[in-house]
Amino acid sequence: MLELKKRLNVLPVHLIDPYENPEASVYVGEELESLIATLGGRITDRVIQKMERPDGATYIGRGKVVEVGKLIKEQEVDVIVLNAMVKPRQVHVLKERLQKFKPDIEVWDRVDLILHIFEKHAATQEAKLQIELARMNYMGPRIYGMGYVMSRQGGGIGTLGVGETNTELMKRHWRDEKKKITDELKKISASRQRQLDQRIRAGFKTVSIVGYTNAGKSSLFNLLTGKGKLAKDVLFATLDSSVGKLYIEELHKEVLITDTIGFIRDLPPLLISAFKSTLMESIHADVLLHVIDASDPEMHTKIKVVTEILSELGRNTDEVIYIFNKIDAIHDLDRTGILQQYGQFSPLFISVKNDEGIASVKESITNRLMRST
Ligand SMILES: Nc1nc2c(ncn2[C@@H]2O[C@H](COP(=O)(O)OP(=O)(O)OP(=O)(O)O)[C@@H](O)[C@H]2O)c(=O)[nH]1
Ligand SMILES: [Mg+2]
């Protein structure tokens, strides 16, 4: 693991399919750079490789390796980040080749970058364990076990059982570690589930806020619950679920509201599954609010990403309420178009920043709850 105390020099490397819509690549590239900024990295440069298909060995291709190699030396780059999910083997080979130019260079793919951000923002033991599990799932037994086997070999390979190969050892280590973490997570989740059950038995209804990262979920949560939760212009500011209360006059009752981790495109299912227990609780709420950044040109794609993840997690997405936030930041929002396209999701237009439309959110929650009781 890389020391994150000092400010990292980061070089993003984008592989662009020349036949793909160039605008789409720009947005995906911008997202990568805001992820890097979120981690506190300094972007030294930007390398673009136009290729229809990644190179099997080095991902970026032999010629590019030399170009990137020279850059990382010149610019004292600590990490290069590949803008995609890349096979561990390709990352490994690329790193080896680049080490000839700069021995301590790190090579991350997009998922590694996201995992480092998660790690930086993880506040609770549960979040930390979930990230560790996600990392293990993502690396797989071989890559995860590499460091372990090296250290065992340092201590003498004679400790291995007869006929036990390194791969088997790696797999066993991976399985054992995974079981330890999973067991611990189960305990935490069970105790939280008990709390939740108690609340449900006490007659509390639940409302959950979901959406793409940076859409304004925590900001809305704060406004609804009066809590001072961290809202920041970074991706994945929130990693832990938090619960607050909102009083609904018509029901003469308080409801529980949860704010949780944001979604992002190309989040591998294995990574989501590590956060499943936290996510499951929240997405199976009585009312689900999907917060959308209406000022984002990529809004429609992001809505799709969130909807897909919700269905992957088994939530019926028909009854979600769409909340188009940040209307203060866009002047020509096509409300008619949105109402037509997303009419079935009872779209609301709000600005948390200007405290606009919040009453409509409460009203919508109330209506749903009245219908379901
Ligand atoms: N202009 C504008 N900015 C907003 C509005 N609501 C939230 N923001 C800003 O959007 C950024 C993200 O807000 P958060 O509430 O942290 O978003 P989030 O969805 O919880 O993000 P993650 O937890 O990182 O997934 C912050 O800089 C907020 O100040 C709004 O109505 N208008
Ligand atoms: Mg948040």
What does it look like?
The protein is of the alpha/beta class. The chain has three domains: 9-117, 3-Layer(aba) Sandwich (Rossmann fold); 123-183, no CATH class; 203-372, 3-Layer(aba) Sandwich (Rossmann fold), CATH 3.40.50.300. It is built from twelve helices and eleven strands. The protein has helices spanning 22-38, 62-74, 88-98, 110-121, 125-154, 166-201, 217-225, 269-274, 276-283, 299-312, 335-342, 358-372; strands at 9-16, 42-43, 47-50, 79-82, 106-108, 206-211, 242-248, 253-259, 287-293, 321-325, 348-349. It has a six-stranded mixed sheet, with helices on both faces. Strands 1, 2, 3, 4 and 5 form a five-stranded parallel sheet that branches. A hairpin with a 4-residue loop joins strand 7 (242-248) and strand 8 (253-259). Helix 1 (22-38) packs parallel to helix 4, helix 4 packs across helix 5 and helix 5 (125-154) packs antiparallel against helix 6. The longest helix has 36 residues, at 166-201. The chain is globular and about 70 Å long. It starts with 8 loop residues before the first strand and ends with a helix. The structure holds guanosine-5'-triphosphate (GTP) and magnesium ion.
